[in-house]
Structure formats: structure tokens, C-alpha cells
Design a protein that fits this description.
Elements (H helix, E strand, L loop, with lengths): L1 H35 L2 E4 L4 E3 L2 E3 L3 E7 L6 E4 L2 E2 L5 E3 L2 E12 L4 E10 L4 E6 L3 E6 L7 E5 L13 E4 L2 E6 L4 E5 L20 E12 L12 E8 L6 H53 L8 H15 L4 H12 L10 H4 L7 H8 L1 H8 L9 H7 L20 H15 L11 H10 L7 H12 L16
Antiparallel strand pairs: 1-17, 2-3, 3-4, 4-8, 5-8, 6-7, 8-16, 9-15, 9-17, 10-14, 10-16, 11-12, 11-15, 13-14
Helix pairs in contact: 1-2, 3-4, 3-9, 3-11, 4-8, 7-8, 8-9
Length: about 475
């Protein structure tokens, strides 16, 4: 379960940042393309309602100011001979209102108006006008002017200078382009506020004179276009907040992984220290027991190593192998109660002495009864002299009824006893040991465990020696 969780966290920590980077790149590219695309609203394609031109992003309305000051009659301009240079005309203030209908900001906008009939442009305010004269005649004349701030000597366009200012001549088919004034807050055009009836737009104005028209005449400025960019922010995209959420999840995953690894490392370090302390404590106790019988020096440690190797061969996990190692290390602890004379007797034991010796299994189980730090600690001491055929002691149980730890230690203990010098005999030969193991399969020993021991011997992992055979470091 822990391994699956670790693999899942590793997979999340690899895939999430890749997805975040790729999706964020796509989002930024889409946002860049959206902001840099020039949009064109042609009046011809608009949904028109009187003087109002409706587009998806904005609306444009071209109206006269109206009222007493909205229009007047101009008496004309005479030359020295009394002939009209400019015939009497109606002067009218026109206003163009551009309204932003989107939730985005309108940037870099400009407006083009086609001149519907011959007229003169006299004045403008705020922004600059780029005039295009004589377009249809093929002799186009172009100049950009701010008629609110100009010098008469700078004007190269066709026109006249009058007491009301310059009169820029424009014919049908000519046009002008209006560039808004940023200082007068004509650009950018702010987005429309949510849940508000207030319109967000700009109003520009210009004065035209149209000869031979009545005072209430209104010119039809119905041909033109608006060019602009929309600017939005990635913060408005729901996708951005999804990416932000994934980023937060990724950071939490990283932090969790680091925290888990740090805690795991602390746990493992503490566990190693605890295991070392337990092993040293056990080894000290074992040394105290084996000091009573010098001929068995190192026996418990070797049995523990053999048992751990057998547990691995049987397929137990490393944690279980370590548990078996500690249990096997203490399998003979009950001998602390056995008199030295019996433990070190060089000859055969009498029946009474043998009965006393057999009680070391019960004594060991009693000693380890309250040792709960390692599960089943007393089982090895109690059952390592039980036989597979049921003829062992202290309880005479057989086969699978003998706990697996007892069956493992039984084989390890017998092998080390045969392979070691004792006070009553020398170590047995390699051939005799192998024959004893094989001949007692299913009798004294669990046949599966014997086969595992023989495999370890044949593989060179457990070696014979002329003195005490020892396992490689387990």
C-alpha cells in the first residue's frame, strides 16, 4: 500500500508540473493572440438603428449636438472680386460616440469616416485627424493635423483660412482617420462594468460646413470603420484558475512528499537506533548465557543469521525477516536457569538431567512473556525443539501446528549444533551433516525449510568451516 502511494505521488509530481507548464503556455499564447489580433468593424456590416451602428464588441453613434449652438449659417467667403470662394453653408457640430460593450479594454483604436458629399472641416477637438483629399481624382493629398493646435503655415492641405479658422476642403469619396488622444482619456476605452447601466465610451467632435444646405440638414456619415485591439487578462480565464488550483495541488503534493520522506527518514533512523539498541541488549544477555558454556559461544548469533536467511529464502518480507532474526537470537535464553554442571557436562546426560535441560524452552518462554516490543518473541524459545513428526518437546505438537518460527529455528539450531564443536564432541563432517538433514526431512525437520537450507549451502551463502561455520552477513 505504501509503495502504491509512493508511486502515485511520484507520478503526480511528474505529470502535474508538465501539465501546468504546457497548459499555461497554451493559455499565454491564446491570450497573446487574442490581444494582438486587430479587429475591424465596418459600418456596412453593422446592425444599424438610425444613427446607431451596433457591433458585437462596440457601438458607434454619429449625431449632431443639436440645440441652438449645434448648427448655424455661415455667410460664405468672398474673393477680392466679390465672388464666392465658399458659398453660404450650414455649420454643424457632429459627435461620434464609441461605446465599449465588452468586459475587455479597447486599445489602439482609430476611426475612419468616408465623406458623403462635398464639405469643409473647420475644427476638431482632442485627437488628431489624418485627412485624405482628392482620393477619387488620383491626386491624393494626405496630412495629419490637430486642428485644436496648429500653425497656418504647417497646413499643406487644400482649403481656405477664414475668420473662424481653417476650412479643409473635402470632396465626396475623401475620408479622414481619427486618432484618439490618450491625454484626454480617449484611449484606452475601459470595459463595461458588470451590473451597471453606465456606458463606457468616448465622445469625439468635429465641425463641418456644407454649402447650400438648410440649417437643419444632417449629413449621412454611414460609410466608415473602427479598427482596434481588445486587451484581456489571463486572470479572467477560468482555465487560469484551474491551472492555479493544479499548481497549488502540485505544491501541496511536493510538500507532502518532502514531509513524508523526512518523517520516513526520521522514523527509519529511529527504528535503526531502536533495533541496534534491542540487538545490543539481546546480544549482551546472550553473551551472559553463553558465558556459562564457552563451547556454545556465538551459537545464538549464528542461529539468528541462519534463521533470517531461511526466512528470506521462504519469501518473507524484510521486516518479518528482522523479526525472526531477533526471536532466533533469544531462542536459548531459558538456559540461564539450567545448572552449569548440566550445560558443560562432557558426557551424556542422565534422564533426570535431560528433563531439566528440556525445561529451558519453558523457562525461555516465561522470560520473554512480557517482551511485547517484538510480536511472538517467546514462540522461538518455546517451540524450537518441537519435531515435525510430533516427537519433540515441550508440547509434542507436529507439522503445521508448530509455529513457522519454531520450525525455522529448529533447522538452524540443529545445523549449527552439528557444524560446531561442543564440550561433549567435535563438529560433524560436511557429509554427515548433509545426510542428517536429508534423512530427517519430514521427521525432525520441516521438509520445505530443509530444502531451503540445502539450497543456501549449495549456493555458497552458508559455508562449512573446520571450526565454526558462519553465515555471511545477513
Amino acid at each position: 500500500m505504501k509503495k502504491k502511494y509512493g508511486n502515485l505521488m511520484m507520478l503526480v509530481n511528474i505529470i502535474l508540473p508538465v501539465l501546468i507548464v504546457l497548459d499555461t503556455a497554451v493559455l499565454l499564447i491564446q491570450n497573446y493572440l487574442y490581444n494582438t489580433r486587430e479587429r475591424v468593424c465596418d459600418f456596412v456590416n453593422a446592425e444599424r438603428s438610425g444613427t446607431l451602428f451596433n457591433f458585437e464588441d462596440l457601438t458607434v453613434e454619429i449625431v449632431t449636438r443639436g440645440g441652438d449652438s449645434g448648427s448655424w449659417i455661415f455667410d460664405g467667403l468672398l474673393d477680392d472680386d466679390g465672388k464666392f470662394l465658399i458659398e453660404p453653408a450650414v455649420g454643424t457640430i457632429y459627435e461620434m460616440v464609441v461605446t465599449n460593450n465588452t468586459s475587455d479594454t479597447i486599445l489602439d483604436w482609430k476611426a475612419m469616416l468616408r465623406i458623403p458629399e462635398d464639405m469643409y472641416v473647420n475644427n476638431t477637438w482632442n485627437g488628431s485627424f489624418e485627412f485624405h483629399q482628392n482620393v477619387l481624382s488620383g491626386n491624393e493629398n494626405v496630412q495629419t493635423l490637430n486642428l485644436a493646435e496648429y500653425s497656418r503655415f504647417d497646413i499643406t492641405l487644400d482649403g481656405y483660412m477664414t475668420h473662424v479658422g481653417p476650412m479643409i476642403t473635402l470632396h465626396e469619396g475623401d475620408y479622414f482617420v481619427y486618432y484618439p488622444n490618450t491625454d484626454m482619456n480617449e484611449m484606452p476605452i475601459a470595459p463595461k462594468l458588470k451590473d451597471s447601466n453606465r456606458e463606457s465610451g468616448v465622445r469625439i467632435g468635429f465641425i463641418v460646413y456644407i454649402p447650400n444646405r438648410d440649417i437643419d440638414y444632417i449629413a449621412d456619415f454611414s460609410i466608415g470603420e473602427i479598427r482596434y485591439h481588445l486587451q484581456t487578462s489571463v486572470l479572467k480565464s477560468p482555465f487560469f484558475w484551474v491551472m492555479l488550483g493544479l499548481t497549488v495541488i502540485w505544491i501541496i503534493c511536493i510538500a507532502s512528499t518532502v514531509a513524508v520522506r523526512m518523517n520516513t527518514k526520521r522514523f527509519l533512523d529511529q527504528r535503526r537506533r531502536d533495533e541496534k539498541a534491542i540487538e545490543q541488549t539481546m546480544q549482551t544477555f546472550v553473551n551472559f548465557i553463553e558465558a556459562k558454556d564457552p563451547s556454545t559461544s556465538g551459537h545464538s548469533l549464528r542461529v539468528a543469521k541462519y534463521s533470517k536467511m531461511l526466512a528470506r529464502e521462504l519469501g518473507f518480507c524484510e521486516e518479518e525477516c528482522s523479526r525472526i532474526y531477533y526471536i532466533a537470537l533469544m531462542h536459548d535464553c531459558g538456559k540461564i536457569y539450567i545448572p552449569d554442571g548440566i550445560l558443560t557436562k562432557p558426557g551424556h546426560l542422565t534422564d533426570d538431567e535431560y528433563e531439566i535441560m528440556k525445561k529451558h524452552t519453558l523457562h525461555g518462554a516465561e522470560i520473554l512473556r512480557d517482551f511485547t516490543a517484538i510480536d511472538g518473541m517467546g514462540s522461538g524459545a518455546l517451540n524450537h525443539h518441537e519435531r515435525y513428526d510430533g516427537k519433540g518437546y515441550p508440547n509434542g505438537i507436529s507439522g503445521e501446528d508448530i509455529p513457522i518460527i519454531g520450525r525455522i529455528i529448529c533447522v538452524s539450531d540443529a545445523f549449527d549444533a552439528m557444524n560446531s564443536r561442543r564440550c561433549y564432541r567435535s563438529s560433524l563432517s560436511h557429509e554427515v551433516i548433509i545426510n542428517e538433514l536429508k534423512s530427517n526431512r519430514g521427521k525432525q525437520f520441516d521438509p520445505v525449510i530443509v530444502d531451503c537450507l540445502l539450497a543456501l549451502i549449495n549456493g555458497g551463502e552458508i559455508k562449512f568451516s573446520d571450526s565454526n561455520s558462519e553465515a555471511r552477513e545477513a
